[in-house]
Design brief:
By secondary structure, the protein is of the alpha/beta class. The protein contains 13 helices and 14 strands. The strands form three sheets. The chain has a ten-stranded mixed beta sheet with strand order 3-4-5-6-9-10-11-12-13-14, covered by helices on one side. Strands 1-2 form a two-stranded parallel ribbon. Strand 4 and strand 5 form a beta hairpin. The N terminus and C terminus are likely disordered. The protein binds S-adenosyl-L-homocysteine and iron/sulfur cluster. S-adenosyl-L-homocysteine binds next to strand 10 and strand 12.
């Protein structure tokens, strides 16, 4: 029996408010116990590890409950210090998170859905198809589990930022993602600043505008990856619904409403989007508003014919952008030795066809 199956019928304490936890406790339990349990959950402790609670209470709670709605299936450590986690959620679904160390602090890359509906040609999560949305407690648990493994607690965090760049399209799971960010940033929750959370989207323009209107303070990162609608639609089917002009205009709106500079992700694919004409069009598209371009070289996905642009050509592409006044950086492709890109470890683990 897998651990997921064993926990199938159990509920996770991390998903409950203190008042709900109180209602599960015997009347004899002191009033602060529920708050204490919530704090332990945010530290990533399992019920058996909440040793300041009476043993009998721990046993009663363990009957129907677990602390976190996930267990760690595998962990892979990259030579560059990043660490990739494959988590199994209650019910058995698998999704990935990545721990990414920086010069200052570290961030966690979080999955927001099991699979993804968007079907981008270069992405392992898209190939797998969509299974279900992750709920707020499941996303929070990814952060809590990685933070604990890095030696942190909720009060003394080992992670300082969160990026929504794992499997899934966060704006296609809008309400759950907003609630997750609320828990992540609440003072009596995980306590991170909303400005240290980055939401990456394939460009659901309506969702971007809604986020701006909802008073978001997150950093917005837009996966652009092409400069003509023809090229973008060929690798990102979502472009047929929200073409480039609409995506860029929603990103401008986000800047106007929030005052936050928008990041554009641009994955270079050899012969598809890496010509000097692309660089020219990209600068024209993003002219007149504070944008930053993150250039990434494609992480080849098994079974795809798409190839990464060479390092030299990537540097040349970035230089063309900066020469025209558009800030651009070529990002390290982290963890490529551990299937670092979106959905790849899971694909390797479960076989070519996903589940
Ligand atoms: N669905 C959201 C967030 C998850 S994907 C989005 O698409 O933005 C996070 C980032 O990884 C996106 O910029 C995506 O385009 C990029 N990505 C996915 N697969 C990749 C690959 N094989 N190589 C390089 N980048 C990839
Ligand atoms: Fe989904 Fe993002 Fe992957 Fe596209 S790149 S399939 S939107 S997870």
């Amino acid at each position: 029996m897998t651990r997921g199956a064993e926990h199938k019928e159990k509920r996770a304490l991390l998903g409950l408010e203190a008042a709900e936890i109180s209602s599960l406790l015997p009347p004899s339990a002191p009033a602060y116990t529920a708050r204490q349990i919530r704090a332990f959950c945010l530290d990533g402790r399992e019920i058996a590890e909440m040793t300041s609670l009476p043993k009998s209470l721990r046993e009663t709670l363990s009957h129907d409950l677990v602390a976190l709605p996930l267990t760690t299936e595998t962990v892979r450590i990259s030579a560059d210090g990043s660490k990739k986690y494959l988590f199994r959620f209650l019910g058995g679904d698998l999704a990935e998170s990545v721990y990414i160390p920086h010069d200052y602090g570290a961030s966690v890359c979080v999955s927001t859905q099991i699979g993804c509906k968007m079907g981008c040609a270069f992405c392992a999560s898209g190939k797998e198809g969509f299974k279900r949305d992750l709920d707020p407690a499941e996303m929070l648990a990814e952060v809590v589990a990685v933070n604990r493994d890095a030696g942190g607690t909720a009060k003394k965090r080992a992670v300082s930022g969160v990026v929504l760049m794992g499997s899934g399209e966060p704006l296609d799971n809008y309400d759950n993602v907003r609630e997750f960010v609320r828990l992540l940033t609440a003072e009596d929750g995980f306590g991170l600043s909303e400005r240290s959370v980055t939401l990456s989207t394939s460009g659901l323009a309506d969702g971007i505008r809604r986020l701006a209107d909802d008073g978001s303070r997150m950093t917005l990162s837009v996966s652009l990856h092409a400069t003509t609608d023809e090229a973008r639609s060929a690798i990102m089917p979502v472009n047929r619904r929200y073409p480039i002009s609409e995506v860029v205009s929603a990103a401008r709106y986000y800047f106007e409403k929030t005052g936050r500079r928008v990041t554009f992700e641009y994955t270079l694919i050899s012969g598809v989007n890496d010509s000097p004409a692309d660089a020219e069009r990209l600068t024209a598209l993003l002219r007149g508003f504070p944008a930053h371009v993150n250039i990434i070289r494609l992480n080849a996905v098994e079974g795809s014919t798409l190839k990464a642009t060479t390092l030299t050509a990537a540097a040349r592409f970035a230089a063309l952008l900066t020469k025209k006044g558009l800030p651009a950086t070529v990002r390290r492709s982290l963890g490529s030795d551990i299937e670092g890109a979106c959905g790849q470890l899971k694909r390797r683990y479960t076989g070519e066809d996903g589940e």
